[in-house]
Design brief:
binds diaminopropanoic acid; 26 helices; alpha+beta; single chain; binds zinc ion; Immunoglobulin-like; 32 strands; 5-stranded mixed sheet; Neutral Protease, domain 2
Length: 873
């Protein structure tokens, strides 16, 4: 397979100023006529990308070409042209119903009732027509759709509507004009029977906009929360960044068949139903928050991605990291900022740190790729967002806004690079941000080691910081990066100490940020009147792993007193990890175990603490994060040790107190969506988990009642999970009931698969195999595949990593079948093998055999081959 390198970038040889697309739509057969208005930029033949297209005709300036007038092959149509401007017209045939890869034009749902839609990012447009399918070719689009009126009553494309009418034979047409030049990956169309909800909106700069959310009739009533989120997102972007929407209509469409979460096509966002539908009966609290976040994310792309797009796919994080950052800030403003930070960092640690520690590790801006679809990763998205957060922190609120204004102004209507972004932010503030470029080019999670020394006589505290990034694929030597470390010093009684940094400028405060940009740095604080406990990397000020040799009682001080909500939680996580290590080594009553359980027992009795924060504090790191801390992983041992950690906490608090708290929360449980009600449900769920750790049968009794009385999905699913994890037999009736009750609700059924896919232990594989035989399971639906196979492989360590390797062999078989249907989804599931090298020897050997065998095959897609090739190295 060919590898594409960032250093080989060359500007496009031809621009497409304007494109006219004409679709004659049908499920089995769609014809596409594309008329490209071309302008030469370099002395090269015209090369258009095209894959899987049946070429029917091609003409240049009205002259039909014969097969000897062009070269067709290897995914390109090459035409030698000797003028500088011309119009090339191609006519191609497509077969949407046969498209199981869900890239290009395809059918969602059944032949009788489903609808047609497109997915073009990253390189799907070349499956629709011949085109220079690269993000730095920006064109104005005019799109005409024609179809049978009865079968396809709704016709949508991006841009503003520009006429519609009747045709002969029961057919009709609709035209759309997009005045904003855009790259081909932002093209979209939708055609079929869809219902809608609508709302009028007026932008801050006075433009009336019609907002429409479309979905199949049976789910349209579940789109109201998405509409509400959309309106709040639009206002927020006006208020926070001064960005207004720029078309007369904005469409959002829900589909059950989608490879990604959602897609920001200009004026026509398309969503995986999972991130658009939300109703109290079938959506959990988490899902409401996800809908709010993803609706905002895709809307925010209209500026960070669409108006200013990426020069090439290496710059993907330019739009994704930035948009995730914008989305996270929005969610923090809508909900609780510290809780949002905890959630985001937990995700980074669960998804990005492991990715960056294995063979699939890559920089936020990769230097090379063979299949770009495999770079829609946690690194590009979540770590990319952390980099923007560091820059925003460096510039401050007003400075960051100034920089963003300049970035949008300079690059509007253009395709930009990470350098363009940094230079706009920097120049608007007279600050040189180029040192931060190194973060974009260097993979791996930096380790920041810190040590402190207090000199009581001199009343001086000396803090030493050292940084080091481990070697990774293709990068043996790592450089030092600028790492902002926000810090404070606490006295053991919880007082924050004034910080008088020697040689520091700035006023004396209780919190400050130092930036270490060398391998080592030393900071001296004067007039420190007691030996302090440092609170470092507050708010998670940089995406690094902090190593500081805290004594358990020092962490307990921070857990009790830190006013930075994130660091308070973090102190608890660190302390829990120390307690975990002790329990693993058989030290039941160690200082760490006592300090962790003791501090939490005290917080548990503190009425002032918010229910949601308490629930987070009472949750130790998950199995996946704990796995990352071990040199050689044995999932069974990790699970057992984590269970005893929970048991130690539960018995320290006391079963009766847990039960009491559970009952009082349960008594006031409603299905309401306000923050307090959600927090109560979350804490209740923690109570149930903790009760289960000391008294499974009591937990089951409570869970069964909770399942039966649940006012909504959050309580119902939490109860089902407890029932199923504490006793699979005892849960059979509830599992059957759930299956029956939600038989017609695809997203709820996904949860039914997901709960069972994650049940631990040796029976897990057999259970998953039985679930594959359920009438509703299909490899053709990405959500269903992720719910069962994806979660089993990624989120069920004891089940997937069976010592006999049976689950590895089973997954390999499924990957091959899945690859024949949908390469993108197969490749994503295959990333579950990323960590195989750090398994204990027996499992490692079993995984290796499977990975090597798969990687040696020559009949797999480029997507899957790329992942396997890198994982096997
Ligand atoms: N649709 C994906 C996202 O918004 C890729 N652009 O992140
Ligand atoms: Zn995005």
């Amino acid at each position: 397979t060919s590898v594409i390198h960032l250093v080989d970038y060359r500007a496009p040889a031809w621009h497409v100023e304007h494109v006219e697309l004409d679709f004659d739509l049908g499920i089995d057969r769609t014809d596409v006529v594309a008329k490209l208005d071309l302008r030469r930029m370099a002395n090269e033949p015209l090369r258009l990308n095209g894959e899987g297209l049946e070429l029917l005709s091609v003409s240049v300036d009205g002259r039909q070409l014969g097969p000897n007038d062009y070269i067709l092959g290897n995914g390109t149509l090459e035409i030698a042209i000797d003028v500088d401007r011309c119009v090339v017209e191609t006519r191609v045939g497509l077969r949407p119903a046969e498209n199981t890869a869900l890239e290009g034009l395809y059918l969602s749902g059944s032949r009788d009732t489903g609808f047609l839609l497109t997915q073009c990012e990253a390189e799907g447009f070349r499956h629709i027509t011949f085109f220079p399918d690269r993000p730095d070719v920006l064109s104005k689009y005019t799109v005409t759709l024609r179809a049978d009126r009865e079968r396809f009553p709704v016709l949508l494309a991006g841009g503003n509507p520009d006429g519609e009418g009747e045709l002969e034979g029961g057919r009709h047409w609709a035209r759309f004009v997009d005045p904003h030049p855009k790259p081909s990956y932002l093209f979209a169309l939708v055609a079929g029977r869809l219902a809608r909800i609508s709302q009028d909106y007026t932008t801050a700069d006075g433009r009336p906009v019609a907002l429409h959310i479309w979905a199949e009739a049976d789910v349209i009533d579940r789109c109201h929360y998405a509409m509400d989120s959309l309106v709040r997102s639009m206002r927020w972007d006006e208020e926070t960044y001064g960005r207004n929407y720029d078309l007369d209509v904005f469409h959002v469409v829900a589909t059950h068949d989608f490879n990604m979460g959602a897609m920001e096509n200009k004026g026509l966002n398309i969503f995986n139903a999972k991130y658009l539908l939300a109703d109290a009966d079938s959506g959990t609290d988490d899902e409401y928050r996800h809908v709010e976040a993803v609706v905002a994310h895709e809307y925010f792309h209209n500026w960070s991605g669409n108006r200013v797009t990426c020069r090439d796919w290496f710059q993907l994080s330019l739009k994704e990291g930035l948009t995730v950052f914008r989305e996270q800030s929005f969610s923090a403003d809508m909900n609780s900022a510290p809780l949002k930070r905890i959630e985001d960092v937990a995700l980074l640690r669960r998804a990005q740190f492991p990715e960056d520690a294995g063979p699939l590790s890559h920089p936020v801006r990769p230097a090379e790729y063979s299949e770009i679809n495999n770079f829609y990763t946690a690194t590009v998205y979540e770590k990319g967002s952390e980099l923007v957060r560091m820059l925003a922190g460096r510039l401050g609120k007003d400075g960051f806004r100034r920089g963003m204004d300049l970035y949008f102004e300079r690059n509007d209507g253009d395709a930009a690079t990470i350098e363009d972004f940094l230079s706009a932010l920097g120049e608007a503030n007279d600050i040189d941000l180029t040192p931060y470029l190194a973060w974009y080019g260097q993979a791996g999670t930096p380790r920041l080691s810190a040590s402190g020394q207090y000199d009581a006589d001199a009343r001086r505290y000396t803090l030493k910081l050292r940084q080091r990034t481990p070697a990774g694929p293709g990068q043996a030597e790592k450089r030092s990066l600028p790492i902002p470390v926000k810090l404070a010093l606490f006295a053991t009684d919880g007082r924050m100490l004034p910080l008088k940094l020697r040689d520091g400028t700035g006023p004396v405060d209780t919190e400050l940020t130092v930036v270490i940009d060398q391998a080592e740095a030393t900071y001296v604080f004067d007039d420190v009147d007691v030996a302090p406990v440092p609170s470092l990397l507050r708010g998670f000020s940089a995406p690094v792993i902090l190593e500081f040799d805290y004594a358990p009682d020092e962490l307990a001080v921070l857990l009790q007193h830190d006013v930075d909500g994130f660091n308070r939680w973090e102190a608890g996580q660190q302390l829990a990890a120390l307690a975990y290590d002790d329990l693993r080594d058989g030290k039941q009553d160690s200082a760490a175990v006592t300090a962790w359980t003791g501090a939490l027992a005290t917080l548990f009795g503190n009425e002032a603490i918010d229910d949601a924060l308490l629930a987070e504090l009472l949750t130790p790191p998950g199995e996946i994060e704990l796995v990352e801390r071990q040199a050689e992983r044995d999932p069974d041992r990790i699970r057992a040790t984590r269970k005893s950690l929970l048991a130690a906490l539960a018995s320290r608090i006391g079963a009766s107190k847990l039960r009491q708290r559970y009952q009082s929360l349960h008594a006031r449980t409603t299905g309401a969506l306000d923050a307090q009600s959600q927090a109560a449900r979350q804490l209740k769920r923690r109570m149930l988990d903790l009760i289960a750790a000391v008294d499974e049968s009591d937990a089951r009794t409570l869970a069964l009642a909770q399942y039966n009385e649940a006012p909504g999905m959050t309580d119902r699913l939490a109860a089902l999970t407890i029932l199923a994890t504490t006793s699979t037999d005892g849960a059979a009736a509830s599992i059957a009931h759930f299956r029956e009750r939600y038989a017609d609700n695809a997203l709820a059924l996904d949860k039914w698969f997901a709960v069972q896919a994650q049940l631990p232990g040796d029976d897990a594989l057999a259970r998953v195999q039985a679930l594959e035989r359920d009438a509703t399971f299909t490899l053709r639906n990405p959500n269903r595949v992720q719910a069962l196979i994806g979660l089993f492989a990624r989120a069920n360590p004891t089940g997937f990593h069976r010592a006999d390797g049976a689950a590895y062999r089973w997954l390999a078989e499924r990957l091959v079948t899945l690859d024949g249907l949908n390469p993108q989804v197969a490749a994503r599931v295959a990333t579950a093998f990323n960590g195989w090298k750090r398994l204990e020897p027996v499992r490692r050997e079993a995984a290796h055999a499977v990975v090597a065998e798969l990687a040696g095959r020559s009949d797999l897609s480029r997507d899957l081959t790329d992942i396997l090739g890198r994982v096997a190295l």
